[in-house]
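From the pipeline queue, job 12 of 40. The input is one protein chain; the requested action is below.

Action: predict structure.
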Amino acid sequence: MNDTATAPTASSRLRALAAALISLLLAVAGLTVAQPALAADGVAVTASVSSATSAGVQVQVQASGLPADATGAYVALIETGTEASVTGSGGFAAMQWVRGVSAGALTVALDAPAEKLDRAKTYEVVVWREHSSPDATTIYARGGVAVSAAQWDAVFGTDPGTDPGTDPGTNPGTGPGTDPGTDPGTGPGTDPGTVPTVAPKITVASAVTAGAAGITATVDGTDFGSATGVYAAVIETGTEAAVTAGGGYAAMQYVRGIAGGTFRVALVAPVAALDRTKTYEVLVWTQHTLPTAATILARAAVPIGAAEWDAILPAPAAPSIEVFLSDGTTPATGTALKAGDKVVVKGSGYDPTANVGGRGVPIPSNLPQGTYVVFGNFADTWQPSKGAASSARSVGTQAWALAEGVLNQVPSQYQSMIRAQWVDIAADGTFQATLTLKDAAATPGSYGVYTYAAGGVVNADQERSVLLDYGTHASISAPVTSATATGGLTVTASASRLGGIPGAYVALIEKGAESQVTAGGGFLAMQYVRAVTWGAFSADLTAAASALDETKAYEVIVWQQHTMPSASTIYARGDVTITPQQWAALRGTTTGPETPTTPTTPTETVPGGSLRWAISSSFVNYITGPIAKGAIDVTGGATRSGGQFQFGQATGSTYDRNTGLGTVSYVGAVRFTGHQGVLDVTISAPQVRITSADRATLFVTSGGAQVSFATLDLSRAAKVTANGAVTYAAAPAALTSEGRDRVLQGYSTDLNPVTFTIGSAAAAPAGSTGTVAAASVVKKKPLPATAPASTGIEIAPADLEALQTGGQATITASGFQPGEKDIRVVVYSTPVLLGTVTADAGGVASWTGSLPASLEDGAHTLTLQGSVDRGLAFSLARAASPIGACTVEGATLDWGFKESFRTYIEGIAKGGWTLDGVAYEYPEFVWTGGSGSFDGESGAGLVTYGGRIVFTGHDGALNTTLSNVRIELAGDTGYIVTDIAGTTQGGETVDQRDVRFAEFSVGGATPVDGVLTIDGAAATLTDAGAAAFGTYAAGEALDPVSAVIPVGTGCGAAVEETDAGSAATTQVTAVTAPVAESGAPIWPWLVGGFVVVAAATAGGVLLVRRNRAAGEKAGETVDV
């Protein structure tokens, strides 16, 4: 259908009449309807400055009456009237996304730094719809923020143009009918009086307010001279600078009518304004001023005793936990536990309202984050309040203690994650959790049950622990360190994870012969180890060469001291491997005696040390892959061989072979670059710090600073000692949060195991240097603007007829190279890539498919482009197809695009997406209001949704737009069709229309009750999509596609042909023209006679509804 079709006269008159009526209604509405209020009906917002310091101001905001369906809102402090300047990155003094709107209300604190404020300007708070920009259609409410002169002074210093403390416009008074802000002396009772010559005095007594929650401070003042009025307030001791007309005090009163210099006043401080951890005082100062050193007349402490505090603010019980066996009553402490056992944790004193703040995900930061209840292996210093890194806390099993009322406010997409580990904190601060014990990934310290604040909040009060006797699997290794005929066989037995035992027996025995071991024999060598430190020890066992039998196998066992070795007493056992060369050395030679020579003490030659590490295979593949398109450079003495980066040992090692502890450093650097230089990561000068037999930390230098990059689990590494050098092979490495954020720019990845040798200073092992790996960048050959050939394609008559009417057809062409790949199938006039094919052994290429539904009728050329070009000129005339179709209105589409791509955008790319005409409802983008046509008999159809998604990242280096989204149905196959423009991840410019981007199976779906439903259809990237998007290869899995397409209950039924068929087609062409203008022509044959009446009566309403929907989505953004 082309857009130049002319509507019949009757239709034109009808639409002209409708247009005139609408114009009249709009004109009348413009005259009679007032400008819309800036705040939505019933929405109220209050904002006040809660603190002001040299760092900035904090504004407390409360809003109520928000729409019932609002789960979140944006709140910002802005210069009055400047909402048009607000973007996701600026235009405000402070801003927060409040994700926890409950019952239409929210509370949030906005912290505005001083550098974003100007005391010469006025400010307001605006609250508006999330995922949008603030304007008249999205703002829920706004309210002014009053910043007093004293508060401005606290931020910027005293304004030289203001007389501090004498502003007659300030009204700190609270007494009814008083106006302390009037000019002193203009009314009775307002004369501040002369300054008394005798220093005024006050005495203060406190008592619990009868029948109310609060403290009454009774103040008796004397020697106030001729003063007729003063201000009196209860404040936190020493905080008079924070007192303003609107706050900064627990209680305040304007004392008037003072006679004879004496007065008595009772100041009632409500419990909500008090904190029993603080002290309070009463200030009395000159009326009509703020309290300063020059205006304060007297001050005295408020005596509040423990009994009074207990009456109004009972001291909360300190958080504590008890751990029981699975019966819930038998204490677990002292009982030997193993993996699979259950323990019951009972907590008390855990404030369910505490721990507000945190990361904001999954629990909004304005809500309590709850408490982690964890079984795991934690370091001696594990507490977040003491600055311990997350690597100090290795978790085995975790529960999440959280008040149910808070959990119900968590966004729905996160609730299932929390509920899987949730236990309730009751209002009295108690909880009960059952934990199933299992090994932690790492063992930085001791096993036990630990609690600490969740969500990234730090709360020392809730950091509690109970250590448990949890049995981990002990291990022992016994490499041969020496084998000679005279010195015998020496093995170094290294045991770990033995727990808190003080000592143990260790012996070299014939394999499996532990039953023969006694105090006097049954072993080849034995030691009593009396110094087991942190569950580990190392001891040398030497057996005489004559005691060994080459036909037998040997092992080392370690068992409980003061016992005999048995299944119940042996901690661990490990095989001893003796090589043929070592056996030969043990046998010695049989030649005659040699003339003895004076022995000399040989100088021990320690092998050179090195560190060999692939760092992260996934990160390396990402750098050299089609997304980052980067390179890896090795410099500074490092090398690369067999995929391993190699670093030589530096001088200055502090490693002690006797204790097995210390630090060893290595030399060299590896640099990763990608995304045209936006990603640039250097890892240099690795250093291993061994702090126990089981644990080490790997530091690297990045950005000129040393960073804790990974933790190493030495208990799972193979340890070999030879010739004075110690090697740890394949030690598992875990990335630290510091390594992720400070080195890898927020990119989280699995690390490869680390192998390192501690020996003497040496160069790195031989390998490659310089650029050791780089992405293979193949420039895409652009599509020719015009068809390169119009002949050479062969097609059967039946296929040609199908091709020309929009059906499926098969074409072939010869002359290509045998087995030639990536032959492009392109249709013209405007080039559209339909896919790629591979030639057979004879150089013949074939393609079977249908033309895009968005391709307009008319003359076209279909081509095959490879080593040679072949073409076919044809004329598309879908109007010749049989009639029997249904109109689609109100269709929806749910599609997340590709989850890993969204994660990439939000993570390493540090970007996001902007939406227009599309909504994002995690984890999918949602389109509504789709319209088009569907043929129930053939299963063909085209539904247009429109909208636009703009993906951005890497500071604008990536900027790709998907727009004008459609679903094309072609029998059992469906396509997501879109226009693609912008700059790809590879930095290439793209601008292609009508791209069949994703392909999915319709699976024979048929309409049910007038609705065609596609539910979670697996989707893959097409050849055309891969060529246009430039990130993934064709066939890459995309997120599943779900769509609901209303087609009408009669869809699929045969339509009776009438003489008015052509007229009906022409009429519907005119009615549906507005849809065609969006870039998705509607096939003329996808209509029925009944559409004429429906369109004539509802077309105008439909058009308005579409426009309104588009307007509601415009400007929508998603924060990441």
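Job complete. Confidence is low (pLDDT under 50) at residues 1-39, 159-196, 880-884, 1054-1120.
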